[in-house]
């Protein structure tokens, strides 16, 4: 979700708020002071748009506790062991009096390893805070928390690309887990027919999965504005008035991201429902650490998370090779 600056403070109140921020960052303020810093708001001219996590919109995060962790024989790092649905063979036709064949069933598991994601350690002389009319918390701590979520997305899409093309790193590779191509290309522009064709990529495996969520970048989503009433029906007026945004279309929830360095122009990622893909596990959610040493204050944010793709068939990607705009065309 994009964040927009807002304020109910006058310029004089903002200056007082910066002085209060110095006090809240003192050792005596404790956790309550850190919360007050996180709750402060003010106006500021923005230079870059930051958005929340796309990956958490696909795999809803689940908070876990120490009681769900398991030790490892390799090191002291925490692990989580999850379970995958047990497979069963199909039925059989038998003659009268024939007993069924035996099948020794067993479950499957996956291991999740956690990574600590951190911001930089931000430092400032507390006296210099008094010279600002704007709230430095808004400019630094809020943005750094969004940067953590951006780092989650970076790792998530890197994982997806590696999973879909582990050998070649490009479209067209047959995955041994599904015996199908799940990162494919279509030699066409983005139009209703080509998008409908791309929705069938996930259907090629014998797991019976269908896309529930699609992710495109902002530039790609604007191509839908070119479509007519014949293409979109009654939806066309709303799309041309408000833009594509997040919406349901063709039975799929479409998400739009500004992160074109993760989701390229002319590419669409498709995801099955989250419980057919994997998990995002949160051992320690985003936490802001604040420390004051004499006249210097420093703070940084960190979190401990694991992102797991346990079922390869639940993810697909399509690159539209003729998706061009702006004169140069798109790079996919």
Please outline what is shown here.
The protein is of the alpha+beta class. It has helices spanning 11-24, 30-39, 55-58, 136-139, 141-164, 192-198, 218-221, 229-232, 235-242; strands at 61-63, 79-84, 108-113, 115-118, 122-125, 174-175, 180-181, 183-186, 213-217, 247-249, 252-257, 267-271, 278-293, 296-309, 315-320. The protein is flat and about 90 Å long.
**CATH T-level fold name:** phage-related protein like fold
The description of the largest β-sheet is: 6 strands, mixed
CATH class: Alpha Beta
Strand residue content: 25-35%
Detailed description of the structure:
- This protein has nine helices and 15 strands.
- With 332 residues, it is α+β, with helices and mostly antiparallel strands.
- The model is unreliable at 1-9, 24-42 and 328-332 (pLDDT under 50).
